[in-house]
Structures are given as C-alpha cells and as structure tokens.
Amino acid sequence: MPVIAIDMGGTKIKFGIIDDAGKILSVLKLEASPGETTEKNLEKVNESVNKLLLEKDISREQIKAIGIAVPSIVDDNNHVVTRYVKYKDADEFDFNIWAKQHWGLPIVLENDARAALIGEWQYGAGKGYNDIGLLTLGTGVGTAILSQGKLYKGKHFLGGSLGGHTSINFDGDPCNCGFFGCLETEASTWALAGLASRHLLYSNSTLSKIEKLEFIHLFNEVDNGDELARILLDHCLKAWGTAIVNMVHSHDPELIIISGGIMKRQTEMLPFFQKMVDQYAWLPAGTIKIKAALEVDYAGLLGIEYLANSLNK
Length: 313
Ligand SMILES: [Zn+2]
Fold this sequence. Notes:
It is a single chain. This protein has nine helices and ten strands. It has two domains: 3-117 and 297-309, ATPase, nucleotide binding domain (Nucleotidyltransferase, domain 5); 128-292, 2-Layer Sandwich (Nucleotidyltransferase, domain 5). The protein is 36% helix and 18% strand. The protein has helices at 38-56, 95-103, 112-123, 183-186, 189-197, 215-223, 227-251, 266-280, 299-309; strands spanning 3-8, 12-19, 23-31, 66-70, 107-111, 132-137, 141-147, 150-151, 255-259, 289-292. It has a five-stranded mixed β-sheet with strand order 3-2-1-4-5, sandwiched between helices. A five-stranded mixed β-sheet has the order 8-7-6-9-10, with helices on both faces.
C-alpha cells in the first residue's frame, strides 16, 4: 500500500508518496528550517503532501502509514533520544501524536542512515545481502549496520550509528561532539576547510582561494595538480578506509555500501577502500565486497517506505 515517506535532512526535506516495493509515485523537496520547530517543518510538508495526494488522485484512506527518517538517534517508540538534535525540539516532539492528529495513521521514525541502509538493502546495492555496513560521506559521516537481516541497534539505540564519531586519532583535533580525533574531524566536509588552512602548504595552494571549501573543489584541484589537494584527499581516503576496516572488525559484514555526494569520485575511492580492507581486515582478500550506493538520492525515502509498510505485518 502507498505510504507517506519523509526524509528530514539537515538542509533539505525530501518527501513523497511511495507504494510497495519502493515504487515512487511522487516526490518533492523543500528547504529545511532546522532553526524552526519540528511542528513548523512538518506543517510545510503536510501542505505539500495534501497537494500530491490530490494530484495523484489518492485518498487518505488508501495510505497505510507514515515513515519519517531523521538525522538523530531514535528509539523503538519513535522518540528522538540523541543529545545532538538537528531539528529544534525534535527530542521533545511527539511524532506518534502528530501522526494520529494530522493523519490518523501509524508512524515509524528511524535514523536517516539506517533508513538509507534499509533502502539500499531492499532496492539498491545491498539486494541479496543480509550483513551490510553503510557509510554516508558528506557534511558529516553517517553509518548504519544490518546484521543477519536486522538493523543493529544495541541497548541504547546508538549501535552502528556513530561511526562518524568513532575516534581514529587520539592525538587528533577536538570534534564538534566534544570527543577528539573522530572520523568526522579527520575527513568530512565540515572539517575540510580547517584541515586545509592549518597545513603548511596552504598559502601556496589554490585551495586558499576557495571560499567554503568542499570535496568537489578538492577533486578539481587534485586534477589540476595541486600538491595540498592531493595530500588532503589521500589523508581523507586513509581516514575513511581506516573506519571501514574498523567497521569490518567490529561488525563483520559481507558488504560495505558507500553513499554520499563525495562518491562522484568512486572510480578512485572504491578500489582504494577495497585494497585497504583486503590488506588489513582479518579475512582472506576479496571476502568483503565494497560497493557504491545505487539509490543515492532516494535511499532514505525507500527505506522508510519499507519500514512503514512492514508495520503490523
Ligand atoms: Zn565527534
């Protein structure tokens, strides 16, 4: 049955009507307003969803459930439990009551990386595998683990989610989470400008002329022969590769899926990661498969559709 699927990212909210088996009937994007209340953000989504339903001639009675992916840690009762809340008041917001009052429907809430992993597992690069690790490389680093066909959650729902805040350098810089040398402080878009500007080669590098440095700039300058760009990309590749080997050792998956905009450079990145895993993981070379995500834009929506359609089954 069709469900209302919503993926609340840090900058954009994607949402749509998605039918069984990941069939996208209609999707839209809105600018997110993380400074506004969760209720306000969802109000905007509601208005647009009502229009989509009209356009597609789908009645509310035909909708089975609502699924929402959020950039936070979520418990099994649809509550945001993280101490880092990207949407104002999301940890105090009652998603169950909201869904009942506005739609009269059951709801499932899940962490965005976990939803993306479910999307890839059911409809993308993870089809046919039941033990998968996912890394989303972007502004931060999101991770999730599927173990024997089930999301790995742990006692406090953090399980598998904090790969971006697992330290890979105990002498490293402080992270925005308060820890030090986290994977995100060593290799993520938010850390990139700082990594570049602190380097001795910075003043002679073309990177010093770029405002709001992102990986796309780094890739371009690597291709233009900039020495610092190459050093930084090698540093980030090694940081991500280290995290992947750590993930293999802690969760023993059969497949690692890499997602995020940075994967536009996948022809260089995937072989690098494969080589590191083959060299360092305690398994025969080639045992662990490493693939790029297939459903980069809609994995979260597709995953939350699957979870919403699995409610009460
Ligand atoms: Zn951290």
